[in-house]
Amino acid sequence: MRLEIDYSRCTGLGICEAEAPDLFEIQEDGSLSLLVERPTADSRAAAQAAVAGCPTEAIRIVED
Amino acid sequence: MVRRLVVVGASLAGLRAVEAARRAGFDGEVVLVGDEAHLPYDRPPLSKAYLADETPSEPWFRTADHLRDELGVTLMLGTPASGLDAERQVLRVGDAEVRYDALVIATGATARRWPGTEELGGVHPLRTLDDARSVRAALDAGARTVVVGAGFIGSEVAAGARKRGLDVTIVEALDVPLSRSVGTEIGEACTQLHREQGTDLRCGVTVTGFEERDGAVTAVRLSDGSTVAADLVVVGIGVIPNTGWLAGSGVRLHERDGGIVCDESLWTGVPGVYAAGDVMHWPNPLFDGEVMRLEHWTTAAEQGACAARNAIEPGRDEALSTVPYFWSDWYDHRIQFVGIPRADEVRVVSAEQDDDRFLALYRRGDRLVGVLSVDRPTQIMKYRRLIVNRASWTEALEFAGVSTQQAVTR
């Protein structure tokens, strides 16, 4: 599993960080940092919650 | 067994309800009823990017094809629900009767209008896509803009108009804007953001009337005796839950605002009938069961999904426990709030001279219950986690790097 961010859509609202703090973090300037590009299976539920919760639908899970 | 799920209300909560039902494996019939002719659309951009001085992108969530083919949803758009017969499990929509096994009510709320302005050109609420199109067209034409109500929607509209270089006046009845939603001190701080941008903010003043020519507004008269010229008046004075159609249905309505009263699992108390979104009150377990009605994007999404999962699987009774979150974009600033604002104390923990950025903590009893930030995007969700974990006030101050000794003696 790989995470993909569409930075043209992301506005840094931070719901992904709320759902999955180990995977996402909003920086001081409001931009989103992907902390782990290839999360392990343990993080799947959190990653899915981040995808579902994103108001701008900027996150995608790509299956390898 | 639930074979037919009907969702009434085709905005965010309604959309999330049908999506969650399918994700949970529900393979029965799904009907989505909406009063507007539009497909489900996203509201936050309507008072933000949609008003900017560039071609807006349309705020549709999904195409009609996606809803029909991918989600297997039967759409009934353009007619509001007009009644509920709970005995027969029938929803009335215009002349049609729609039978349900499970029903999710997500009919939202209607923006309050200024009495007597229904027919007056140039005076608009900002709630629907059609409202936004009207406001946008007026801004395109260079309207002198008056905003009635310095709440979050009104403030965003003012910011959008100022960004275009238009003259903007905000009229606010309270002495300090937002004092009811975020407290007096913080409301005052937010006010500064308007003044710095040249928005004429008039507090403690009410609208006494409108001047018009040929059916369109030309000026707003105020209680201090002044008159402000206006081509566009945007009224942001709150909403009324859309529950008039439920009269006599047996669904319990809140005595104060007529919103639907639900339990923790978003059940209305009527068999098979759940509710989600701005239309409803529910006791939020994370805040000791405090009953709240929220008008936030994230909560509406969560409630829609939770209500649908419970509706399609009787006995499931998943409680919705959540930290409310909202954001508002003013000029180039972002205001974010997590938690609830009704507090015993509000403490600004990071603010510097000549810097608009700050962060404020809200204490109730010994607990951190809310955090507001202006341009502190990297911090807000870390505080949200503290609220989820029911952090004490002392823990919150420690996290903020504030001396707890000082906190005790204050």
UniProtKB/TrEMBL annotation, chain A:
Cofactors, names only: [3Fe-4S] cluster
Pfam families the record matches: Fer4_13
Annotated 4Fe-4S ferredoxin-type domain residues: 1-29
UniProt-listed SUPFAM superfamilies: 4Fe-4S ferredoxins
Entry keyword set: 3Fe-4S, Electron transport, Iron, Iron-sulfur, Metal-binding, Transport
Keyword RNA-binding applies: no
Purpose of the protein: Ferredoxins are iron-sulfur proteins that transfer electrons in a wide variety of metabolic reactions.
Protein name as catalogued: Ferredoxin
Organism: Nocardioides dubius
UniProt lineage: Bacteria, Bacillati, Actinomycetota, Actinomycetes, Propionibacteriales
UniProtKB/TrEMBL annotation, chain B:
Pfam families: Pyr_redox_2 (PF07992), Reductase_C (PF14759)
Record keyword Flavoprotein present: yes
Keywords per UniProt: FAD, Flavoprotein, Oxidoreductase
Cofactor dependence: FAD
Residue ranges of domain FAD/NAD(P)-binding in the record: 4-304
UniProt domain Reductase C-terminal: residue ranges: 325-396
UniProt xrefs under InterPro entries: FAD-oxidoreductase/Apoptosis, FAD/NAD-bd_sf, FAD/NAD-binding_dom, FAD/NAD-linked_Rdtase_dimer_sf, Reductase_C
Name of the protein in its database record: FAD-dependent oxidoreductase
